[in-house]
Amino acid sequence: MSLVLFISTCKLADTRNKTYLIHKTITTMSLRLGDIAPDFTADTTQGTINFHEWIGDSWALLFSHPADFTPVCTTELGKTALLNGEFTKRGVKTIAVSVDDLASHNKWIPDIEEVNGVTMNFPIIADENRTVATLYDMIHPNASEKATVRSVFIIGPDKKIKLTLTYPASTGRNFQEILRVIDSLQLTANYQVATPADWKEGEDVIITPAVKTEDAAAKFPKGFTIVKPYLRTTPQPNK
Ligand code: BEZ
């Protein structure tokens, strides 16, 4: 986790017209791949959770949306609920966050359910104090001072950040892409492979450069193809 400190100085005048110099420290935490996902305790629509305990041995998808009762967010949360079976199959728990309070979330849920024909089946964090939004740097002031952008964090069972994505408020996320990337993350966590452009579950994968060609046959018994000495492909090993 990297820490950037900005010290800014501003002038304040009081009623006697004396001027004071005020030093303000603004702290920005920038989260990077491989960092431990910051832990927190928060109220959610499914009760109070401690984030790391809630993740347990699962993977987690933490995603922010700008505000309750907004159109794009209504479709995104509905889509996530509809795909619950796909996330569960992959051992992934989903959790959303916005800077609205619990009462607002609970009023909004029936709309999400009605519009998308689904029952909400994952928690939404009430982050009215912006604790989570600040920890995860989800407010980008040059986009909006008040609302969170559409951040995505995929976190492994080791609580480390495996992937981040940031979308603006005006663009809803592609949840098929999120599932696709989870498939790649889970596969590449377990085998010495990488996934090529536009790869989908079941397609051939790339043997990582760390594997010597003379060792590849033993490691990849389904066989492999040498396209270039540095680009060797093999059938997906866990299929
Ligand atoms: C929405 O979630 O629908 C939305 C939020 C802010 C700006 C535009 C759309």
The CATH architecture of the largest domain:
3-Layer(aba) Sandwich
- Average pLDDT, rounded to a whole number, is 91
- The CATH fourth-level homologous superfamily of the largest domain: Glutaredoxin
Oligomer: single chain
Helix coverage percent: 25-40%
Rg over alpha carbons = 22 Å
Q: Which hetero compounds are present in the coordinates? A: benzoic acid
Shape: elongated
Main β-sheet, spatial strand arrangement: 7-6-5-8-9
Number of domains: 2
Strand content: 25-35%
| Total of helices | 7
Provide an overview of this structure.
- With 239 residues, this protein is of the alpha+beta class.
- The chain folds into two domains: 31-187, Glutaredoxin (3-Layer(aba) Sandwich); 191-234, Antioxidant, Horf6, Chain A, domain 2, CATH 3.30.1020.10.
- Helix content is 28%, strand content 31%.
- The protein contains seven helices and 13 strands.
- Strands 7-6-5-8-9 form a five-stranded mixed β-sheet.
- Strand 6, helix 4 (102-116) and strand 7 (124-126) form a beta-alpha-beta unit.
- Helix 2 crosses helix 4 (102-116).
- The longest helix is centred in the last third of the chain and has 16 residues, at 175-190.
- It starts with a strand and ends in a 5-residue tail after the last strand.
- The model is unreliable at 1-15 and 19-26 (pLDDT under 50).
- The protein binds benzoic acid (BEZ).
